[in-house]
Amino acid sequence: MTLVGWLQIAAVLVAVLVAARPLGFYMARVVQGERTFLSPYLTRVERVFYNASGINPEKEQSWLAYTLAMLVFNGVGFLSLYALMRLQAFLPLNPQKFGGVAPDLAYNTAVSFVTNTNWQAYSGETTMSHLVQIAGLTVHNFLSAATGIALAIAMTRAFARSSVTTLGNFWVDMNRTTLYVLLPLSVLLALAFALSGVPQTLSASVDATTLEGIKQTISLGPVASQEAIKQLGTNGGGFFNANAAHPFENPNAWSNILSIWSMLLVSTALTFTFGRMVGDIRQGTVLLIAMWSLLIAAVGIAYWAETSGNPLLVQAGVNAAGGNMEGKEVRFGQAMTALYVAVTTGLSCGAVNAMHNSLTPLGGVVPLFLIQLGEILPGGTGSGLYGMLVMAIITVFIAGLMVGRTPEYLGKKIEAREMKLAMLAVLVLPLVILSFTAVSAVLPTALESLANSGPRGLTELLYAYSSAAGNNGSAFAGLNVNTPWFNTTLGITMMLGRFAYVIPVMAIAGSLAAKKKVPASPGTFPTRSPLFVSLLVGVILILGGLQYFPALALGPIVEHLLMNAGKTF
User: Fold this and answer.
1) Residue 226 in this model has a pLDDT that exceeds 70
2) Where in the chain are the domains?
3) Which of 376, 344, 366, 180 has the alpha carbon at shortest distance from 264?
């Protein structure tokens, strides 16, 4: 590790914080229906959508109606995207003349983009036409991100309001988030990416002649526009198979910095939105400190692990001073690769600028464990905030029991109903991750897809289902997932990871909104102190450790011990 490397990491993180605070306050104004600088231009557009769809923006919904509206909307989105991919061969904007996508792959991809996972069991440049990329995948990059933000805003209203039965209107929240936040930011970011060298064209490809005189056909397309919302919405799905390691998606150091900055921006800003809406900025700041302290620690571990090198390669005569550069782009170096690895998995983004299967065992633990913690550091757009609020509810309940104080959070009493629902949500992820991993570890059909055996092979399986359940979408690489078994089971895992998790979360929101907000008393556990931050971090780590440590011990931890002993499996 070097001082220059740490300064690069620090500069990117500071840039995120500088932009996130004003954006967070702006987003609070947007979702509360207040006037903003974009209102003169977008208010009429907003009304057109309401009139065309028959939505009354003044009518709010209960938690159940809000959740049902979200589920119906995403169900229609899944069916339309599935049909678009299946009928691809008969539709325009298909200069590559691609045929229809296979049923199991179309199912997997449709679920993937609707759930904000963007898991890709295909090579984008050789599978999806420009129309599917634009009207299908990019559109759902916006809508899935807006859905997550809307759910987080509904959860926030539960704490901000007192004795009410409504949480807002899903259609209004999603519409405003898309129009006033995601679209304007994406336009600006797409222009920035295009200026940095990312292609934006409807051409299918370009021919180039190499220095050896060999003709090479290089795929092109509307990359910059998809790249913008891919990062802002923590979607992560790449236009090309190599994702952000591809020189057309991520051509230089500046585009790499811009990618990391844009990934972190909205999720970080939502903590400031939360603080503004509940009337206490410090409450949002506490959540942000907890998120970022774990994220920065993860960056440090990944950076250290990758610069320490591989003892097996040292035995083979490789200079240890270069660290582990396998699978990394020399354009970015190990510091910015480590930051990218931690950010993309601390978020539910899944974009990659290095192959995670090439990380050292301990380096590989970082993205895997960050996903398994529930994608809350700082998590996906919206999903990270409501996931962290679930952890905060569990923390105040445990803290209250430990010190004999009333379990309250932001003036709302945390009782048995909320705790049961919180634990139901928390148990969804380990249930689907560990169950499907266990079955795949003994199923011959699944084992045939592995690139590695032994501990690393188990890590490949564990990472795939963790990524799907956490709606992350990154892959450990090496695992051939474009098979009926993986397309089907990973699709099921993605749906459960998104919707089976969020339904109890919304039930918690409905329960809390109906409660009267009471002022803090001498018996109330303080939630704006360093002590609460420490407890929150501890609960997150203990829950993650208890759920996943046995599986991690059989995979990357065993591999690390073997590597240090100079052995392979």
Assistant:
1) yes
2) 24-35+43-205+215-252
3) 344
How many residues are listed for the chain in this entry? 569
Token pair, residue 477, equals 């690489």
The amino acid at 310: N
Q: Could you give the C-alpha distances from 191 to 120, 221, 258, 492, 563, in angstroms and in order?
A: 25, 15, 12, 36, 45
Q: What is the mean pLDDT of residues 131-160?
A: 93
Report, as an integer, the average pLDDT of 81-103.
91
**Distance (Å, whole) CA 363 – CA 533:** 26
CA 247 to chain centre: 23
| 170 Cβ neighbours under 8 A, 6+ residues apart | 61, 66, 69, 70, 73, 150, 154
- pLDDT tens digits, one per residue of 513-562: 999 988 877 777 888 889 999 999 999 999 888 889 999 999 888 888 88
d(CA 58, CA 168): 9
Which residues, 6 or more positions from 323, have their beta carbon under 8 angstroms from its beta carbon? Answer: 306, 307, 308, 309, 334
Which residues fall within 8 angstroms of residue 434, CB to CB, at 6 or more apart?
547, 548, 551
